[in-house]
Structure formats: structure tokens, C-alpha cells
Amino acid sequence: MLTVEERPKPVVRVQPDGRVFRGQTVTLTCDIQDTDVTNWSYSWNKDDSEIHVSQSQEYRISSVSESHTGNYSCTGRETGGSRYSHTSDKVTLTVSGSSEAQALIIGVIAALSVAFLLIFFLALLWCCKHNKDTIWIF
After folding, report:
1. Which residues of the chain have pLDDT under 70?
2. Which of 6, 56, 78, 114 is deepest in the core (most CB within 10 A)?
3. What is the C-alpha separation between 18 and 99, in angstroms, rounded?
4. In Gene Ontology terms, what is one molecular function of this protein (predicted)?
5. For the structural domain made of 11-96, what CATH number should be given?
6. Looking at the DSSP assignment, which residues form a beta bridge with residue 13?
7. Contact present, 78 and 39 (Cβ < 8 Å)
8. Which residues share a beta bridge with 28?
């Protein structure tokens, strides 16, 4: 008896699935459904080059940078067997330089600096106006 089965096609999921910023942790998951294989070895590719092989279906990047931007895919191979999956469709990971929160913090610091300088110069002018006889030497 000969049994022919279609090779399963994995699906790659990305967490977080929205915008990704430098320094965040990103987890790629290789999900292989509709198969009786329970032990897979997962091969991860970035831009069509193999970058990682493991028994875990997750590939975690603990602190992403712009260099991690690219197209990721995975393939499963049966551990200790001869079966393997198709290669998943590619998922694009784009890493941005800084988050909106970081931009907001920089904006607040800049605004506070300008406000401090304005108050300092107003206080200096007030002192000069009320102390006309005082000589200021800087």
C-alpha cells in the first residue's frame, strides 16, 4: 500500500504584528497545520538565506535593529524522519529607527529646555530693569 500526502505549508506569524522599533523583542512563529508529524526541526530564512535552525517553532530576536529588516520564511523538517514541509510565504519585517514614544520624549525635553531658557532670560531682564545701578559682568 502506498500513501501519498501533500506536504504542509507553514505560516509565519510575527509578534508584534504592527510597526516594529529598534530595541523591541520580535518573535517569529512557524506554524505547521494539518499533519501527523509531531517533531519538527525549523529552518529560518532571511532574504532566501538560512539564518537559524532549531527544534523550537519560535525564532526570537531580543533587540531588533534596522539590520533585521528583511523577508523571513520557514521550512519544517521531520526530526528523525524524511518528511518536510513546503517553505512558507515570506513575511516582511521592517524595523524603524525610533518609536513615537521616543520622539515624544525628545519633543518634551526640547520644549522644557526652551521654556527654561525663556524664563532665565526674562528673569535676567527683570533683574536688569530693577537694578539699573548694578553692573553685570559675564
Report:
1. 98-103, 132-138
2. 78
3. 12
4. transmembrane signaling receptor activity
5. 2.60.40.10
6. 29
7. yes
8. 14, 59
Residue 101 belongs to what H/E stretch?
helix 100-130
Closest CA to 94 of 29, 16, 21, 24: 21
> Residue 48: left if φ>0, alpha if ψ -120 to 50, beta else—which one?
left
Q: Hunting for cell 522599533 — which residue is that?
A: 21
Nearest to 80 by CA among 127, 49, 39: 39
Q: pLDDT tens digits for 95-124?
A: 988 656 666 777 778 888 888 888 888 888
Domain range summary for the chain, segments of one domain joined by +: 11-96, 98-132
Note the pLDDT of residue 137: 61
